[in-house]
Amino acid sequence: MEYTKFGKTGARVSKLGLGGAPLGGDYGPVTDEQVTEVIDRALDLGINFIDTAPLYGRGESERRIGKALQGKREKVFLASKAVMRGESYSYDNTIRSVEESLKRLGTDYLDLIQMHELSELNTEIGMNETIPAFLKLKEQGKVRAIGVNAFNPALLLPFVRSGHIDSVQTFCRYMLIDYSAMDELLPTAREHGVSVINGSVLGMGLLADNPAPFIKKDSPLVKEAERRIQEIAFLRKTEPKGLIEPAMRFSLSSPDITVTLTGTTSLRSLSLNASYSDGVGLPQDELDRLLILFPGQPMTW
Fold first, then answer.
1. Do the beta carbons of residue 153 and residue 208 sit within 8 Å?
2. Which of the 8 DSSP states describes residue 59?
3. DSSP state letters, 173-236
4. Tens digit of pLDDT for each residue in 120-164?
5. Which residues are CB-neighbours of 276 under 8 A, at least 6 positions away?
6. How far is CA 293 from the centre of its chain?
7. In terms of DSSP bridges, do strands 3-6 and 11-14 run parallel, antiparallel, or are they unpaired?
8. Taking the CB of residue 71, how many other CB atoms lie within 10 A of it?
9. What letter does residue 80 receive in the DSSP assignment?
10. Which residue from 31, 48, 78, 243 puts its CA 20 to 30 A from 260's CA?
């Protein structure tokens, strides 16, 4: 397992992190016992970064992770988010959301709190109310680092430049068929010493030959993804779901990606992904060939 420094905090984190959405049951039934098994295996594999949110399982992911971490809290860099989808990003509601997360997680502090699902609709309130609430919580010792999460990398740029945050998290924007985060987000984050957390490197399952249930099979997105996947056939391994390893290595080996998230309840999948966290990226000729295919061409979701 490779490790790196997290933003300006100096904390040592594993380059592979465990994502909490499946642990809340968002992708299928899961028990408390299964979650404890997954977290125990993650710790055994050297993974010390766990990322969750109150949204995942409507609080169940946080509760289960908290239960699994009893007596082990100091072994992990624990990240969550605020607020729950559909609720206000106001100062008071942000404080309340974080306090509720702390209770569910059974801890008195978070290593990282992130604004969840930043969009154009909440950018202004995020800057003027959510971030000030995070800064107050940091002053109180209830959070140690601050981040912002968004699907659209462009929305993250003002927060990166603000000097108030330690990390950003985006998803589906640094993967084999869409690496548009390279255009502005990654160089800007590097310039400001802000860590980048990379989610959904498998494109919501598209690169694992198993698209998420909410993706319509006949949508323009799927057709475009299929076209791009044909163009990267040279990366595919011979085993089933042969794009998983190159997709993971592409992200894990990038010096601009601090943490690559894997969301799984499968011990086998977790172990395989950990085995790719050895510092070995794509062969240079394959990387060069890949990066001339889709430059500046973000996919439309």
1. no
2. G
3. SSBTTB-GGGTTHHHHHHHTT-EEEEE-TTTTTGGGT---TTS-TTSHHHHHHHHHHHHTGGG-
4. 889 999 999 999 999 999 999 999 999 999 999 999 999 999 999
5. 16, 245, 248, 249, 252
6. 25
7. antiparallel
8. 7
9. E
10. 31
Residues 53 and 18: beta-carbon distance below 8 Å: no
CA distance 284 to 195: 24
Distance CA 167, CA 169 (A): 7
| pLDDT value, residue 209 | 87
Q: Phi and psi (nearest 5°) for 300?
A: -95, 115
Q: Which two tokens stand for residue 186?
A: 């990654």
The answer to whether 5 and 15 have CB atoms below 8 angstroms apart is no
- Per-residue pLDDT tens over the stretch 227-236: 999 999 999 9
Low-confidence ranges of the chain (pLDDT < 70): none
**Comparing C-alpha atoms, which of 73, 93, 68, 72 is closest to residue 82?**
93
- The gap between the terminal CA atoms of the chain, to the nearest Å, is 33
Residue type, 81: K
CB 264 within 8 A of CB 20: no
Query: Which residues, at least 6 apart from 71, have a Cβ–Cβ distance to it below 8 Å?
Result: none
Q: Which among 86, 91, 90, 108 is positioned nearest to 99, based on CA atoms? A: 108
Distance, in Å, from the CA atom of 207 to the CA atom of 226, rounded to the nearest integer, reads: 9
Find how far residue 239's CA is from the centre of its chain.
26
Task: Give me the DSSP letters along 226-282.
Answer: HHHHHHTGGG--SSSSTTHHHHHHHHHT-TT-SEEEE--S-HHHHHHHHHT-SS---
Mean pLDDT of the chain: 95
Q: Tell which residue, 252, 237, 255, 200, has the closest CA to residue 26.
A: 200
Place of tokens 């172990």: 271
Query: Distance between alpha carbon 126 and the CA centroid of its chain, in Å?
Result: 19
Give the pLDDT of residue 120.
Answer: 87
